[in-house]
Structures are given as C-alpha cells and as structure tokens.
Fold this protein.
Amino acid sequence: MQRSIGPLALLAVLAAASLLLAVMVGSVAIPFSELTAVALGQGNPLHQTLIFELRLPRALAALATGGLLAVAGALMQVLLRNPLADPYVLGISGGAAVGALLAMLAGLGTFVVSGSAFAGALLSTLLVFGLAHGTGSWTPTRLLLTGVVVAAGWGAVITLMLAVSPAEQLPGMLYWLMGDLTYANSPAAPLLVLLVLCLLLLPLGRSLNVLARGSLQAAALGVSVRPLEWLVYIMASLVTAVAVTTAGSIGFVGLIVPHMLRLVLGNDQRLILPACALAGGTLLVLADTLARTIIAPEQLPVGVITALLGVPAFLFLLYRSR
C-alpha cells in the first residue's frame, strides 16, 4: 500500500486548497494576508464573522457531503456490480425528499426538515430492501430493479406535492430538491460520519476487491458474501441519507468521482474508497464555491453546478469506453 500514499497525499492537499479557496472567495473577497490575521485571532471582525460563522462551516459541510456521496457511489457500484450505479439509484433521495417536503409544507423548522429527510431516507431503504428480499434472497439485479421502481414512485409523489404546494413555498422546496448548502452550517455530524465510515471500510478493502469480481468467486475465496453485501448496502444507504439530509439531492458526485478515480488509480478498493472521500469532497467544495459566486450576491443550487460539470464528464467517460 506504499503506492497509495502519494495519490492520497495529493488529494488531501487539493482538499485543503479547495477549503482555502472557499473561505477566501465570495461577494466579499478576503485576501490571504487577512486570512492569516484572522487565523491568529486578529483581523477585521467582519471577516472573522464571514469565515467562522458562514463560509468555513458551509465549506466543511460540502467537503463531508461530497465525500459521503462519492464513497456511497463506489460502494453501490461494488454491491450491484454496475458501473452506472450511484447513491440515489435505490430511491433513497426520493424518500428523503418526500420527508423534507412534507416538513416544509407543514411550516416546520430546519432541524425538523433535516430529521424528516433522514426518516424518509431510512423508510425508503427499508422499503426497497424488504421488497427486494421478499420470501427468498435478493440478487443485485432484483435490488436494482426494486430501487428504480420505488424511486419512480417517490418521484410521482414529489411531483404531486409540488403541484399542490402554495406558490410562496415552491422556491425553497425546489432549491432543496436541486441541492442547496445555504443552511448547512453544522458540519460536525456529516464529518464524523465520513470519518467513521472510512475507518470501518479500511479492513474491508480486500473483501470488497473480491466481491467486485462476483459473488461466486468471492464465496469460492472464502468471503462471507451475504453478510458483506448486507453491510455494504446498509452503510451506503445510511451515509447517503446523511448526505441528502445535509444538502438535499446533489447528483453526479457519486457517479462521476469513482469512475474518474478508477481510470487514474485502478480498481483497488483500499485506495479508491479513501480517494473518493477526498476527491468527492473537493469537487463539491469547488462546485459550491462556484454556485455562490458566479452570480453573486445571488446563489445557484449546487446541484445545478454538479450536473453541468457531471454531464459532459460522464459523456466523455462513455466515449472513452466505447
């Protein structure tokens, strides 16, 4: 694993640089010299407020959310043996969206909206797993098809809710559906979940490498396939729920980042998974910085930026794999 130190160190430097850029850039630019003064407890009080109460918490939340989505995407692709799988393929974001929109329609606060989104994501996870399992065991294909159908059902419910919602509540609901980090000012929980996730996945790297080659080969090599698949599914679902709860539905991060890293680093999950945590976080921090500065002082949903970046990147990957 000595060869993994270099790429991971480079990705860590890029993540730190993206955080630094996110703190400095905005409708009020903060020069590096002033940033150093603020870090030492000095500097302009306005800049201290901008950094410690607004920009840094939001950037850390984006780092954690992007990392969670990228790792969840890599896990889903291993579980389903499908390179097109992403964190939202099993309808988790749909369940979270329904829970969050119901709380918004009821006029509840941000904390309740986040809790409702997490509850909806867990409900969708249990629903997909229960339907896919049925009276026998589930297969990756059955799980994928069940998730697609459940996601379509959640989409219909979301469309109905938007159609009957009061006009004054529609902007906030649409922003949440497109991904928004405006109110993500408490990064401690997603950062802690990301750290715990990486620590849990470290000893599973070899088993995941074998599982990615197929369940029969994994079983022949002594891997407990069914418990490992359950663990991967539960972990991917829970971290996706945390990410959606933090920032709404942000697409393409969990799909594009694992693909791009495999092209550069190979398919060793012991390297890919921590690299996804760093690269996914860096991508979302940069996307969120662009979203809040491109038409400042107005802000775009960060999901719009990730889609604009992800679509051409995905088409390029398809072109290369012809």
Remarks:
- The two ends are 31 Å apart (CA to CA).
- The mean pLDDT is 84.
